[in-house]
Amino acid sequence: xxxxxxxxxxxxxxxxxxxxxxxxxxxxxxxxxxxxxxxxxxxxxxxxxxxxxxxxxxxxxxxxxxxxxxxxxxxxxxxxxxxxxxxxxxxxxxxxxxxxxxxxxxxxxxxxxxxxxxxxxxxxxxxxxxxxxxxxxxxxxxxxxxxxxxxxxxxxxxxxxxxxxxxxxxxxxxxxxxxxxxxxxxxxxxxxxxxxxxxxxxxxxxxxxxxxxxxxxxxxxxxxxxxxxxxxxxxxxxxxxxxxxxxxxxxxxxxxxxxxxxxxxxxxxxxxxxxxxxxxxxxxxxxxxxxxxxxxxxxxxxxxxxxxxxxxxxxxxxxxxxxxxxxxxxxxxxxxxxxxxxxx
Length: 344
Description:
Layout: H1 2-18, H2 22-33, H3 38-43, H4 53-90, H5 109-123, E1 127-128, E2 134-136, H6 137-140, E3 159-160, E4 165-167, H7 172-181, E5 188-197, E6 209-219, H8 224-239, E7 245-252, E8 255-264, E9 281-290, H9 292-297, E10 306-312, H10 314-322, H11 335-338
Parallel strand pairs: 1-5
Antiparallel strand pairs: 2-4, 3-4, 5-6, 6-10, 7-8, 8-9, 9-10
């Protein structure tokens, strides 16, 4: 029996030495140290031994068990450490390799133009004012000298929700609301960027939803020369220092006098080309002196206060600035189009 135990020990130690993974090692543990293992079978024959032999064989059996268990534990530690080292070797990061590129979205050209215009006017002391896109008939029309029945209120031009509510057709209601908040006391110096809506067929130059930026200045002794100087600064900032502007008489219900503003063609320098249709000038916005009726309805004394207002479409500015020929490019999210405009 003693020889049998020593032989089992030798066999087990050899198999532990040859084990290549934790599963094989666990199988050896179960095979030799389990309840149905050969060592247990040997110990069951101890009943045939004399009283003097039993303690000796019991001690030997425990020694064999402990030796095998110690060998298995040591091999288990080795295999676990080896597995960690192999995993680390496979997952080693080569810090000399270039990192994975981080894809950064481009700055949308329309957003870039709006922010550029905002920065310009903020630098000139203007504040940015905002208002609701679902507007009342009063602020969208009546407060701007557009009484009921005026042609500009035609249902074909506006998205009406009820008789008194509609999607705003311009950002001018923000001006009316701001003037009303001032309660007849100047100065007022704001720009109003935002979305506007009109019932229009979408094509290369028209959209049922677009953006506007309108400006308003009200104070004592404001004149047309102040308006012209402001718009000259704007034109040079957006289209180049060589640009000049001209004012042409026009009509808007909320300004008097009213003007259309042209900028000298940045493509031909005013000589005439296909961009300016041979005229040397490109229309960029409308403007004028705030109508006395608008001032009075907002609570301002039109004899004491005067002001100017202007409105532009950032889409048109962006199309001219970047040579974009279709307004729909701004809204279709075509990555090929957007990739052309790199982030600053």
